[in-house]
C-alpha cells in the first residue's frame, strides 16, 4: 500500500481543479482507499486532490540565475584584456577553441531559458483574467478589469527574452542542435501549459431530500399527489376535507392514451434532431470537455403549433385530452418510470467522470431518484436536455389549449371565459420565453449538477404538464367570472413578475457569457476562487435570487383568475414557494462550498434571499 507523502496539518501548494494555478493550502485528511488528500484553501474551500496535484512549498522558490548581470555578449573576468590587442582575439595562452566558445554560449542560453521558464509561472499566477488569492482572502476587493501587474512582469521578462533572441540569431550551432534546444525549452514550458486535469469522481457524502428514506417515500408521494389533484378537480366540491372516492383500477389505464403519449414523445424527438438552430457548447465538465447542444426549442414549438393547427382543421377532437386526462397522466408516469430504469441501468457502465456529483452515493434508491449519470446521451441525442424543455413544457401549452376547447364545448360558449384566456395567455408567455431563451437552461443546476433519474424524468414528463396546467383544468369544471378591472390588475401583476424574472436572468446570463461587455460596465461584482464573479449590483444586489421572486409573483397571477372559492387552484403557488425556498437552500449550500469566503462576503452585501426585507 503506497505511503502518503504529506502529513495532516502540513502547508503545501495545491493546484486548483481545472487550471494550472497553485495556491497555499493545508492538508486536513487523507483517504487511504481513494488515495486523495482533503485540503483547505485560505478562503475556507475544501477540495479533494490527488498527490500529483500537490507540491511542497520549497519547489516554488525561485533559484537564483546563473547568468551574469553584465552584458550577455561579454564574459566578466578578473583578467582584463590587453588594450593593444584586438577585442576579437583573446590573450596569448588563453585562446579558446571553437567548441569551448560554443559550450560557453550554450551555458548562457540554458541560464536564460531557465530564468524564462521560472518567470513564466509567476506571470500566469498573476494574470488578471484568472483568479488571484489576494482578491478573496481578506484583502481589499477590486473590480477593475485592467490590471498593470501583468504588464510590469512582462517588462521584467523582456530583457531576458531579447537576449535569448539575439543569441539564437547569431548562433554558430547546427540546426539539429537548435531543434534539440527547442525541444528542451518546450519541455520546460509544459509547466505552464494549460492541460485539462482529470478530476477523480468521489462518492456523494451529503444526501438531500431526506436521504434514502426520503427519496424512497417521494417516489410514491409524487405520483399520488398528481392523482389526488386530478381527482379533486373532477369533483363538484373540491374542498380539502372532501376526499374524492378512489375509482376502479382499470379506469386508470388506457392503451390508446399511452400510445398517443409515446407518439407525442417521438414527435418531439424528431423535432429535436432536425438540423435547424445554432449549436452551442455547455459549461465545462469535470474533465474539461464541453458538450454541444442544438438550440431549436422555439422552432420545435412552431412546428408543434402547425401540427396542432392541422389536427384542428381536420376536426380532431382535442378535448379528448380533457375526457381522458387521468389516463394520460398515468401513461406519462409509467413512461417516466421505464425511462428512469433504463437511465439507471445504462449509468452502471458509464465512466466515473461522467457520473453526477449529486447522484453517486452508492445507494441504489437514492441514485435512482437523483440520477446516477450526469449527461446520458444516445450518440448526440442528450436525453436530459431534451426532456427538460420539449415534451413536458410544450405539452403544457397543448393541454391548456385542450382545456380551453373543452370549456367552450361543455358550457356552450362561443368564446372562452376571461379567466381561461388569462391563464392560457400568462402560461403561454412563460413557455415561449423559456424556449426563446433556451440556451440559458445550460447553466441551471438541473443540467450542471443533478443527474438524470426519476426526479427529473417524472418532473419533466408528468409534474410539469399535468400539475402546472391545474388552473386550466380547474376552470373547466368550476367556471369563474371576473371583471375587466380585476383582469387588468392581474395582468399588471403578471407583467411585473415577468419583468423581474426575465431581466434578472438576462443580466446573469449576459454577465456569465461576457463579463467584459461594455453594457455591463456599471455592474459591480465580487471575484471568487473559480474565476467567476458574484454580482452585487442590479437585480442580484437587490436579493440573492431575484428570478425566484419573479417566478413566485407570476405563479400568484396564474392562480388569481380562479377566484377564492377553493384553495385547490392555489396549490401551484404554494408548492412553488416551497420548491424555490428548498432550491434556494440547495443553492446556498453549493455556493458556499464552491465560493467559500467570497460567498460569505456576498451574503453580507445582499442579506435577503428571495423576498426583500422578509426572507
From TrEMBL:
Keywords: Cholesterol biosynthesis, Cholesterol metabolism, Cytoplasm, DNA-binding, Endoplasmic reticulum, Lipid biosynthesis, Lipid metabolism, Membrane, Nucleus, Oxidoreductase, Phosphoprotein, Receptor, Steroid biosynthesis, Steroid metabolism, Sterol biosynthesis, Sterol metabolism, Transmembrane, Transmembrane helix. Residues 66-75 have a biased composition (Low complexity). Residues 4-62 form the Tudor domain. Pfam families: ERG4_ERG24, LBR_tudor. Residues 101-111 have a biased composition (Basic and acidic residues). It is found in: Cytoplasm; Endoplasmic reticulum membrane; Nucleus inner membrane. Residues 53-111 are annotated as: Disordered. It catalyses: 4,4-dimethyl-5alpha-cholesta-8,24-dien-3beta-ol + NADP(+) = 4,4-dimethyl-5alpha-cholesta-8,14,24-trien-3beta-ol + NADPH + H(+); 4,4-dimethyl-8,14-cholestadien-3beta-ol + NADPH + H(+) = 4,4-dimethyl-5alpha-cholest-8-en-3beta-ol + NADP(+); 5alpha-cholest-8,14-dien-3beta-ol + NADPH + H(+) = 5alpha-cholest-8-en-3beta-ol + NADP(+). GO terms for biological process: cholesterol biosynthetic process. It is a multi-pass membrane protein. Belongs to the ERG4/ERG24 family. This is Delta(14)-sterol reductase LBR. It comes from Zosterops hypoxanthus. The lineage of its organism: Eukaryota, Metazoa, Chordata, Craniata, Vertebrata.
